[in-house]
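User: Need the bound-state model for N-carbamoyl-L-aspartate:
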Amino acid sequence: MVTTTWTRRHVLSLADFLPTEYDIVLQTAASFREVLSRRTKKVPTLQGQVVTTMFFEPSTRTRSSFELAAKRLSADALTFSPGSSSLTKGETILDTAKTYLAMGTDIMVIRHREAGVPHAVAAEMDRLGTGVGVLNAGDGQHEHPSQALLDLFTLCSLLDPENPRSQLLKDKKVAIVGDILHSRVARSNLWSLTASGVEVHLAAPPTLLPKLFAHTIKDERRQRLFLHWQVEPALQDADFVMTLRLQKERMGQHLLPSLREYHQHFGITRDRLQLCKPDVKVLHPGPVNRGVEISSDLMDDPALSLIQTQVTSGVAVRMALLYLMGGRSR
Ligand code: NCD
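Assistant: Bound-state model below.
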């Protein structure tokens, strides 16, 4: 296990993450991946601590992997389900959070359709001097830090399984293709990838990739960001291709003529991958619209697709984050 200089109580955004912090997460996740390969896949690290997942939006893999991560660390995992909770009786989110605080929660993992909700809960926990750590599991179109960290871990582990570190990605080309406009995954990946020295090429139709997106990054990392309204230049010689789901639930108006047309122009297929480096690999955070952003056969091809590896990496990376945040006892 690495000796850490980790000082973060909350993980809300990757915008201000330092290179050393990425490496601490990667190395800690590598140790937990080793734990997960043992016969007994559990360590007593967070024994007696309470991790509460509060998901105000649907989720399959993120919530399950946080809960499994908490259990593998021997924490007690509580699951808040908004549909069957007192929210329906008018309780506010902050009051809900305080209820879980009163039950002894050490770490809150929060997903909400509005950007900024995890930040608001974190600010309230700090104001009250609780010591509770808040982890953003996806807030609106803003950020999804644990997804970008598991993507980073997946990529770096592919390049050096024993010693994954962000430096390995320096000067690699990553194409991110799909619904960038609505994607918190793309925004968080923008931070982690450009911080690792990656050239990031975003590709989408103009309705899903406004020019202004380039202004997300204001520092020198902006030089490593490229926008394309066609997929081909983004794929040309790419080392990795990250595909994103078309988030129909967030599309207020008709931003695309049809899904078929989208697939024709931007769908990732074996043919299109010919443009990339010969050993290219494809990622997708899931859930996938099969045959829309990625062809079905490509998605299921383990020689090209890292989608299942991403899910597996998610548990180790989330164990690392919970371990590093370490709850109130820190
Ligand atoms: C993503 C999300 O919820 O932001 N999924 C995930 O967490 N694995 C992406 C998406 O919903 O398309």
